[in-house]
Amino acid sequence: MNQHPETTAITAGRPKVEPDASLNPPVVLTSTFHAGGAIGYGRYGNQTWSALEDAIGALEGGSTLVFSSGMAAISAVCSILPVGAPIVASNQGYSGVMSLLNSFHESSRLEVRFVDVVDTAAVTAAMKGAALLWLESPTNPCLDVADLETLIATAKQMGIGVAVDNTFATPLVQKPLAMGADIVMHSVTKFLSGHSDVLMGSLSTNDPALLKRLQDSRSFNGSIPGPFECWLALRGLRTFPLRFNKSQENAKQLIARLSAHPKITRVRYPGFGAIISFEVDGTAEQTQKVCESSHLIAHATSLGGVESLWERRRRWPIESPSVPEQLIRLSVGCEHVDDIWNDIEGALASI
Ligand SMILES: *Cc1c(COP(=O)(O)O)cnc(C)c1O
């Protein structure tokens, strides 16, 4: 029987068991290493990174590299594509990725074909001659779900590389490498580390040649994480399944209550996970006021931590105009669900 992810999150990335070996990996704070070994210098490797990479790799089912942020991980994928390479990407997704891809498109670094990922036929048509299919599902912040199995299988038949941003779903919900994807990306900043105290990214793959190219990109662009941050992320990862399951349970309970609230016109939830997007029956200003009127839920961007957070996504000028002005993205934390709900009700009463 395969080990369950709850167990893997706790057991992976530990030092070898021997008398007086530490249970946890040490924080290896060094810029260089004595000559003659496999690492050599602190930009090429570090034992604390490796411990975290082993743990994320065990959860995703592939060899893993950690990066200084999720954006650094995405940038590494883009960096190995030839100049002008056509890539297919969602027309609605994480705003940093949208901005990065738009700037690459404008400068002709890449030819980005933006598509609606829910429209499998449109994505398939756009894939002709492409080098890479970049998928994010569920999408941020509208939580649209792509048919990953079909899209990945089609891309592979066409000989196109596939990378999946698995930040929202996490390996507890979907495992893109097992579906045939070449790369799985995470903003480790979010659910995997889970305490809103570290920024980090990761890439996982089962292709040794691809791993080497991505590793070279990290080494020579210097997009490496700090050893202490890796230690924090691994500490957080130990409870990732516990936290995710609790947040998901809270989210499922909140769906029913939000859907029945007279001041809410639409609730978006893909059926799994801990992110809910809902629309307020009011103006952008009123929606903004709701976000500013919470006491327990932090009014902040980001997601995937133990603490509930929310924000009106359109407060960011870089957010896509296709996202409604009245949309609030709520990252459901691990507090008691009744306390979260009381806070939501109170904030909605402010308008
Ligand atoms: C946050 C996020 C990113 C970017 O990650 P950083 O760690 O902030 O650089 C990419 N994709 C998704 C879906 C995210 O939520």
UniProtKB/TrEMBL annotation:
Entry protein name: Unannotated protein
Pfam family, one: Cys_Met_Meta_PP
Keyword Nucleus: no
Assigned protein family: Belongs to the trans-sulfuration enzymes family.
Record flagged with keyword Manganese: no
GO MF term (any one): pyridoxal phosphate binding
Alphabetized InterPro entries for the sequence: Cys/Met-Metab_PyrdxlP-dep_enz (IPR000277), PyrdxlP-dep_Trfase (IPR015424), PyrdxlP-dep_Trfase_major (IPR015421), PyrdxlP-dep_Trfase_small (IPR015422)
Record field: compositional bias (Polar residues): 1-10
